C-alpha cells in the first residue's frame, strides 16, 4: 500500500504548488499564499494587519492540501493509474482551494435551493465582518506609518539613522501596502463570487435582496481598503529616493 501511495502523493506535492481556478474566471495560486504566510510586520499595528492577511492565506493553503490529498487517495483506493490519480488530485485540490474561498459552487450539478442561499448569506456576513476588521487594521497601520515616516525622516536628516536602517523600515512598510492590497484583492474576488451566487439563486426565483445588501457592504469595505492603500503609498512617497533605491 505504501508503494502504491508513493507516486500519487508525489503528484499531490507537485499539484499543491500549481495555480487553481478560483471559480470566477481568474486564478489563485497557492505559492503566492505561502509567501504571505512568511511575511511579518514589526509594530503592533503592522503585526495585526499581517496576521489578517496570513489568516486568509493559511485557510486557502490548508483547504487545497486537504482537497488534493483526498482526491488522490480516493483514486488510489479505486485503482487509478498515475494519470488518473493526477487528475483526481487536481480536482480535489481545486475543490478544496475554492471551497476555502468561494461562497458559491460552480458545479453545474449543484442544486440551487433556499438552503444554499441561506448558507451563502451567512458566509457573506462572515466575510463582511472580516473585511470590516481588516479596514480597521489597515487604517491603524496607516496612522502608524504617518507618524513613523516623520520620525524616520527627522532621524535620517540628523544622521542618527543610517540609510540601511531606514531602508529596513521602509521595506517593512512596503509589506503593509502589500498586505492591504492582498486583502482588498481577495475582497474583490469574494464580490465576484457573490455576483455568481446572486445570479444563480435569482434565476431559481429566490429572493436575493439580503445577499445583494451584503454584496454592497463588501464593495464599500473593499473601496475603503483601496483608499487606505493609496494613502499608504502617499505616505511612503515622503521617503527619500535614495532609501527607496
What can be said about this structure in brief?
The chain is mostly helical and 245 residues long. The protein folds into two domains: 1-102, no CATH class; 109-245, no CATH class.
Model description:
This protein is 78% helix and 2% strand. The protein contains eight helices and two strands; from the N terminus they run H-E-E-H-H-H-H-H-H-H. A hairpin with a 5-residue loop joins strand 1 and strand 2. Helix 3 (44-77) packs antiparallel against helix 4 (82-99). The radius of gyration is 22 Å and the shape is rod-shaped.
What is the molecular shape? rod-shaped
Radius of gyration from CA coordinates: 22 Å
Class by SSE composition: mainly alpha
Low-pLDDT windows of residues: 7-41, 59-104
Number of helices: 8
Main-sheet strand order equals 1-2
Proportion of helical residues:
over 70%
Instruction: Average the pLDDT over all residues and give the rounded result.
Output: 73
Count of DSSP strands: 2
**Total number of domains:** 2
Distance between the termini: 55 Å
Biggest sheet overview: 2 strands, antiparallel
Please provide the ordered H/E string of secondary-structure elements: HEEHHHHHHH
Strand content: under 5%
Amino acid at each position: 500500500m505504501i508503494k502504491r501511495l508513493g507516486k500519487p502523493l508525489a503528484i499531490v506535492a507537485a499539484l499543491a504548488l500549481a495555480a487553481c481556478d478560483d471559480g470566477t474566471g481568474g486564478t489563485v495560486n497557492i505559492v503566492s499564499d505561502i509567501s504571505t504566510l512568511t511575511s511579518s510586520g514589526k509594530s503592533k499595528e503592522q503585526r495585526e494587519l499581517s496576521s489578517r492577511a496570513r489568516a486568509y492565506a493559511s485557510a486557502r493553503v490548508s483547504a487545497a492540501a486537504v482537497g488534493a490529498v483526498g482526491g488522490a487517495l480516493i483514486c488510489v483506493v479505486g485503482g487509478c493509474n498515475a494519470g488518473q490519480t493526477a487528475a483526481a488530485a487536481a480536482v480535489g485540490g481545486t475543490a478544496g482551494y475554492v471551497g476555502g474561498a468561494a461562497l458559491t459552487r460552480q458545479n453545474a450539478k449543484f442544486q440551487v435551493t433556499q438552503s444554499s442561499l441561506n448558507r451563502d448569506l451567512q458566509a457573506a456576513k462572515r466575510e463582511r465582518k472580516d473585511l470590516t476588521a481588516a479596514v480597521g487594521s489597515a487604517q491603524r497601520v496607516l496612522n502608524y506609518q504617518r507618524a513613523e515616516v516623520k520620525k524616520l525622516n527627522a532621524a535620517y536628516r540628523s544622521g542618527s539613522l543610517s540609510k540601511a536602517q531606514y531602508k529596513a523600515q521602509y521595506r517593512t512598510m512596503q509589506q503593509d501596502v502589500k498586505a492591504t492590497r492582498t486583502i482588498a484583492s481577495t475582497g474583490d474576488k469574494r464580490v465576484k463570487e457573490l455576483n455568481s451566487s446572486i445570479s444563480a439563486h435569482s434565476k431559481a426565483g429566490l429572493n436575493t435582496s439580503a445577499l445583494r445588501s451584503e454584496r454592497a457592504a463588501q464593495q464599500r469595505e473593499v473601496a475603503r481598503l483601496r483608499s487606505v492603500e493609496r494613502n499608504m503609498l502617499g505616505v511612503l512617497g515622503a521617503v527619500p529616493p535614495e532609501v527607496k533605491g
